[in-house]
Structure formats: C-alpha cells, structure tokens
Amino acid sequence: MKQNKKLKLEKNNLLIIGLSIFVLILMLFLITTLFSFDEYKKISENKFNNLQMDFNNLLTEKQDLEQKLNLKVENLKDVEMEKSEIENNLSKLNDSVTDTLDKIDYYKQEIDNSMDWFNKNSYFDESDPLQKDVMRKLKNSAVYYEYEDSNPKNDYNSCTIYTNQNDWIGGNRSLSIVNDRSLQLRYEDDINITTKEDYLQSLSGFLKNKKGDCEDWSLLFVAELRYVYDECKKKSPNVIVGHWLSEENKYNHFYVICGTFEYVMLDDDDPNKYYGHCNVILSPEKIDSVNDINKLLEGVIIEPQTGEFKFENGRMTIDSDGYPTYSNYYFDESGELWIYSKFGEYSGFINDDLFNYYIDTIILENDMLYLSQDYSDWLSYSGLKKELEEKEKLLQESLSSDN
C-alpha cells in the first residue's frame, strides 16, 4: 500500500516536473518568438517603409510621366493641326504656283505674239495687195539709179533713196511723195480712227484706213526704207539714203523710235513744253538688244511724215571723249554722268528752235525696247520673256519637289 502511494507520489512529481519543464520550454519559446517577431516586425516595417517610399516615388514618376504624356498628346494635336494647316497652305500654294505658271505661259504667248507682230509689220508682204501696190510705187518713185559709163548697161554705180520731196530737184521722186500723193496718207489721232487712245495699226490697217498717228507713220516709213534699200542692193553695191548723206552703205538699219520732245525755249509750266512723238532713225549698225543702244548715237533722225531731217544736222555727234557735243548733259545725285545713250537723249534745232528729245521706245524687227521709269533702265520684250522662263523653271522645280 505504502509502496503504491510512494509510486504514485513519484509519478505525480515526475508529472509536475515534466509539466514544469514543458511550461518552461513553452515560455522560452514564447519569449524567443516574441523577440523574433518584434525583430521581424521592425524589419517588415523598414521594408514596408521602403516599399512605401518606392511606391510614392513610382507614383510621382507615374504622375510626371502622365503629365508629360498629356503634354505630348497636346503637342501632337497641335502638330497635327499645324501639319494639316501646312498641308492646306501647301495645297493652296501649289494651286497658286500652277495658276502663276499658267499666267507665265499666257504672258510668254502674248510676248511671242507681240514680237511676231513687230516682225510681220517690219517688212512688206507681197501677198497683201495693198502692200504689193506700195512696193510697186516705191520702186518707180522713190529711188534713183546712177549709171557709170564704164559699167555694163544693167550695172549701176549707185542707188540713192530719196526720203522727202526736197531731196529730188524735180520734186517728184521720194518716199514722202509716194505717201502723200500716191497713197494719200494723212495724219490722224488714234481715238478718231479706232476709238482707242493708243493703238498701233498694222501696215495693212494703216494703208486701208489711209490715216494714222506718228507711230503708224513711223512703222510704215521703216518698212518702206527696208524694202527700197534691199531693192537698191539687188542692182547696185553702193546705196545712199538721202542725197544729203554722201556716205554710201553707211545707214543701212532702220528703226522706229518714240519719246518726248522738250521745247527748251518754253517755260516749265507751259503746256506745250513737252509732247510725245515717234520718228525714224537711220543707224550705221544693227540694234539687236538693249546692249546696243549706244550704237544709236551716230544715228540720223528723220520725220516720217515728211521724210525730212529732225534736227539741224540730222544726227547726234560726240566729241573725242565720247560725250555729246551739246551741253545739256547732267550729273545724278551720286555724281555719275549719265551718257545720253543710256536714256536715249538727243538735242538739236528744229526751225531754229532748240529741242531735247528723250527717247524711251525703240521698235526693232522682232522686239521692242523701252525705258522703264521704275527701273531707270532699258528693258525689252525678249528680255522679259527670258526672265519669265527663268521664273517658270524655278516654280516648276519647286512644284516638283513639293509633290
């Protein structure tokens, strides 16, 4: 019995000891766990804080990126709008360039038509009955062939072209005689002929109307001179234009010149001081372009309605230094001397009255030269056409590159 109690007591003691050890282990575990958790908690909190910081940074960066993206989107919209506007403007510009090219083609054609017109009306056309009749009358009544005893019967020593009725002693052989008596041509202002203030008639138109202004007279007179000169050359190697010009074969180029006369003797406020007029100039050299205008300095000016000298000595003379012998040249603001040939200025006496003649237009066989007031220089139809062609080429290249 005692033995059983003792065993039982020992058993209980062992149980208590075991429980105590368990409780102690459990407490140690709990304590260890608490310490580990706290450490873990601290680590976790640090990680969390770091993650939170990273998150905040990423969020800020995201917001910045979104803001930048929005700006880019807005900029893209602006660029697209600008692109669309540029495309529209470019399309309009291309249309404008195309339209300008069409206009250039039109202007070039107009210039070609004008140059063709001058060429057509620079010489007589034998197929035109009116002009053929003039050619016949000129051969019979405006030239004189002089024989030389030592030459064969059909070989002439010289051929003289008479321009006015006072040239020929008999008074019945000259261009002016043909125009006045045979053709019965008269002066008339354009407004009374064509109802236009300024209109250049064709040779046939003038011959048909039998009246015209100074431009029409000059154009016809030049065509007459060219025709009779060529006829003379066919029969004689020596041609004299007007008995007062003894130099054979010198004046063999004929042109229409137009400009303004200044009556030097009148006051500046006199309405008759200035008037426009066209004449004919006989030149010893051919004029092809504005670069040849200087050659007109040795030209002889004739009044086409009478065939007479325009000035006392008929020509503009220059001294050994190349300056006009008259004293009314001038210096511009820069001190440069303007040579008269640049502005086409002649000076001389008409019926004992002193005139200045400022030439601003020259009509060639297939071109017209004119003095531009805007550029203060000579321009030409052919020069304008060339400039248009250069502009046209640039525009076409620009149009091609845009497409």
Write the topology of this structure.
Layout: H1 2-120, H2 129-141, E1 143-147, E2 156-161, H3 175-182, E3 186-187, H4 190-193, H5 203-209, E4 211-212, H6 214-235, E5 239-241, E6 253-263, E7 274-283, E8 300-303, E9 308-309, H7 340-343, E10 345-350, E11 353-363, E12 368-372, E13 377-380, H8 381-402
Parallel strand pairs: 2-5, 3-4
Antiparallel strand pairs: 1-2, 6-7, 6-11, 7-8, 8-9, 10-11, 11-12, 12-13
Helix pairs in contact: 1-8, 2-3, 2-6
Your description of this structure?
It is a single chain. By secondary structure, this protein is α+β, with helices and mostly antiparallel strands. The chain has three domains: 122 residues; 128 residues, no CATH class; 115 residues, no CATH class. Helices cover 49% and strands 18% of the residues. The strands form three sheets. Strands 6, 7, 8, 9, 10, 11, 12 and 13 form an eight-stranded antiparallel β-sheet that branches. Strands 1-2-5 form a three-stranded mixed β-sheet. The protein has a two-stranded parallel sheet with strand order 3-4. It is rod-shaped and about 195 Å long. About 8% of the residues have low confidence.
